[in-house]
Amino acid sequence: MSDSTGLMQPAPLGARATMADRAADAAGLLSAYIELSKARLSALVLATTAVGFVLGTQMNTPSAWGLLFWTLVGTALCAFGANALNQWIEQPRDARMERTRGRPLPAGLLSRRHALVFALLTAVGGPLVLAWQTNLLTAGLGLLTTLLYVVAYTPLKPITPLNTVVGAVCGAIPPMMGWAAATGELALPAWILGGLLFLWQIPHALALSWLYRDDYERGGFRMLPIIDPSGRLTCQAVVLYALALLPFGLMLTLHNVCGPVFAIGSLITGLLFVLTTVWLFIRRDRDSARRVFFASILYLPVVMVLMVADRTPLNRSGVYTELIGIYDAPAAADPAQRDDVR
After folding, report:
1. In Å, how far from its chain's centre is CA 277?
2. How deeply is 49 buried, as exposed, middle or buried, from its count of CB atoms within 10 A (0-12, 13-18, 19+)?
């Protein structure tokens, strides 16, 4: 408001309180939707997607950066939709768990109807954006990831420990989506990236479920540490999957996607990760499981940074010269020149 001089006068106390309440409500609503989307998990998905994209193209044209932007937007919507649908389905179980009872639906911060509308809009919007701005292959992979997460992984969690394997497949697809968006196809390096993410997720998820196995049991989820009280089978799986990561890292160098610095760095990082899993196998206690969990959190970003920092430059035709043949990806040179990418 203003007086006759045109100077702004302070709003009445009640009005200020109302404005503050509205701002607080808006901030709370935004925070609830961010939590419904599992924004931190989605950020990891976007990071792996970006790495797959960057490894597949030269990133030396504005069109490549624009294509990366739309790839990340579409992938983010897919991740938001899958995560929101997962929470919508699991609301009763989340309400029984200490770790999840503060989520928007169990806590009553959002209605089930609003959550479902948001989930469906984002889950459908993601593949549509990818089909519009990248290509049908990337859109199909995004849709497949969402369906696997919602129709397979989520229903399997209360039934069988194999849900962890299905969840790992979902997490393996995003870097392949990045590669597909950049090149229009799924070449061998894309499958190597997917395999590395798949293998990484098993020890990561098993360590987490070990730490929260009592909570998962209250929620009615059949995670491996729950049906394996001694921990022997769980620890064996953690060690074996961590060991399997070592050659997968080297494969990217063998196929000349990354250089020797990445090979050495990924091998050292992987060996350190393996040591934490072996310690868990020996001790089988919460502290050791916590070390594996945090080691897994450190492993992935270190390896991804090394991938990007030591990636092998593509030539003008977008060709990687491999030790075992030639991988030809002409679409990677300039995504704008591909009619089927836009």
Report:
1. 22
2. buried
Q: Which pLDDT score is estimated for 136?
A: 97
- What gap in Å lies between CA 156 and CA 78, rounded to an integer? 20
Q: 147 in a domain, yes or no?
A: yes
Place of tokens 């089927």: 340
Q: What is the CATH number of the domain that holds 178?
A: 1.10.357.140
This model's pTM is above 0.70: yes
Return d(Cα 251, Cα 24) in angstroms, integer: 51
Residue-wise DSSP of 14-71? HHHHHHHHHHHHHHHHHHHHHHHTTHHHHHHHHHHHHHHHHHHS---SHHHHHHHHHH
User: What are phi and psi for residue 161, nearest 5 degrees?
Assistant: -65, -15
- How far from 30 is each of 39, 41, 211, CA to CA, in Å? 12, 17, 30
Measured distance CA(308)–CA(59) in Å, rounded = 11
| Residue 226 CA, distance from chain mean position | 25
Average pLDDT of the chain to the nearest whole number: 87
99 within a domain of the structure (yes/no): yes
Max alpha carbon distance in the chain (Å)? 83
Does residue 106 fall inside a structural domain? yes
With a CB cutoff of 8 Å and minimum separation 6, the contacts of 242 are 199, 203, 270, 273, 274, 277
Domain that holds residue 225: 38-332
Residue 148: Cβ-neighbour burial (10 angstroms; 0-12, 13-18, 19+): middle
Residue 145 lies in a domain: yes
Q: How far apart are CA 162 and CA 237, in angstroms?
A: 12
What distance lies between CA 134 and its chain's CA centroid?
19
What's the structural domain count of the chain? 1
Q: What is the mean pLDDT of residues 197-209?
A: 96
The more confidently predicted of residues 59 and 121 is 121
